[in-house]
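re: ur msg from earlier - yeah i can do the magnesium ion complex, just paste it... oh wait u already did. ok heres what im feeding in:
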Amino acid sequence: CMQSSKLVDEFGVVHLSAGDLLRAHMKSGSKDGNMVAEMIKNGQIVPSHVTVSLLEAAMQKSGKDKFLIDGFPRNDENRAAFEKQTGIAPVCVLFFDCAEDVMQERLLARQEGRTDDNIETIKKRFKVFKDQSMPVIEYYESQNKVAKIDGEKSPDDVYIDVRNAYIK
Ligand code: C5P
Ligand code: MG
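and the outut:
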């Protein structure tokens, strides 16, 4: 996304998107590709061993040691599996807060050919976020690691806040 590429340009972090890695994996014809495709279409969270392995491989391949991991962890299983498998915990967690009607409008307006940008899956994704992802935000909040960003502003204004959170 735009926020990530700005952080990459300005601070030299390596951007890894869990969703992008899963979408590439699903098209690779691998053995769990069909399972991943089905889960994405239904807005469900893919089992952590798949996602963590993809992230770990991408981190190793980059040869770098500073990462912006986008769209991860999405549930407590994601979080625990990543910390266990890599031994890495985040320094800071960016939480983009945005009303569901605004997100819905943005998702339906973008034309990226995704199987999950339809109204039915969007509703499921919102529910999964509330039920499974919010507890992860609360966990990191208890560690004072969350920077809450107003995601309803324009992309340039959002980046001002992202940048401030990053340099703090
Ligand atoms: O983050 P993004 O919107 O690209 O995620 C799209 C979908 O990919 C999610 O709804 C979910 O099905 C899957 N996903 C996942 N685990 C993650 C990130 C994404 O299963 N950590
Ligand atoms: Mg994404």
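cool cool. The first helix runs from residue 2 to 11. ping me if u need the other ligands too
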